[in-house]
Specification:
single chain; about 240 residues; mainly beta; eleven-stranded mixed beta sheet
Length: about 240
């Protein structure tokens, strides 16, 4: 049993984003920050051939006032078969007038594996966040991916994607969640240009948007989620 932890903190200064803390332990790794306009991009990955046998990973992050942090995955990650579930927890705080973008690479859950991921985000007024997730399970794999977003002491968004090991469904599932102003018409137009996938787009109570993409091909889902994310950014 192994795993790792990662702590990230960023804040705005003079129209740019400064990453003040990158601290990791175990198998988790983060790149140096890359400037991307007013934002800073960090690429996160982990050592080894995949997650296996009760590995536990955790990321804790904060984007302070005026910051715009982009956190991207390095590559697709395999969850290998084993008797104990692999857990992956991430917790983020996004302060007033800050932005967070989480861009995941595919998580591939092998037959005989169990994967349990949880993402929690606390949003202050005036914040924006974009979250993407992509999972693919082989038959015989179990997974649960939960996302909880809070505004103050109120849950603004709760989403749980779950497959048991004996479920017959065999497809890749992508999720795009937008918290803040979003142009649904632009997303609809982008969805019309995506081939070979099924796409559902819904507006939530606070004006946030949830998009789900499904297909037999992991690559087709990844391309579609990327296309929709770029369309969303135009109005974000």
């Amino acid at each position: 049993m192994s795993g790792g932890t990662l702590r990230l903190e960023a804040h705005g200064r003079d129209g740019a984003t400064v990453v003040g803390t990158i601290r990791g332990t175990g198998l988790l790794r983060a790149s140096r920050p890359f400037d991307e306009g007013a934002a800073a991009r960090i690429v996160v990955g982990h050592l080894g051939p995949g997650m296996v046998r009760g590995d536990a990973f955790a990321i804790d992050g904060r984007v302070a006032r005026g910051g715009h942090l982009i956190v991207a995955g390095q590559m697709a990650t395999r969850v290998l078969s084993g008797p104990d579930p692999v857990t992956n927890a991430a917790s983020w705080a996004v302060e007033h007038d800050a932005r967070l973008e989480l861009i995941a690479e595919p998580t591939l859950v092998a037959a005989g594996a169990s994967y349990d991921a949880r993402l929690t985000i606390a949003l202050e007024p005036g914040t924006r966040a974009i979250v993407t997730e992509l999972v693919r399970r082989e038959p015989g794999a179990a997974l649960r991916v939960a996302t909880v977003v809070r505004r103050g002491d109120r849950a603004a968004f709760i989403d749980v994607l779950r497959f048991d090991a004996d479920d017959p469904e065999d497809a890749a599932v992508g999720t795009l969640a937008l918290f803040g102003p979003a142009d649904v018409d632009a997303l609809d137009r982008a969805a019309d240009a995506c081939d070979g996938v099924r796409i559902g787009i819904g507006r939530l109570r606070d004006g946030d948007v949830l998009v789900r993409v499904c297909a037999a091909s992991t690559w087709a889902v990844q391309v579609a989620v990327g296309t929709l994310r770029r369309a969303a950014l135009a109005g974000f």
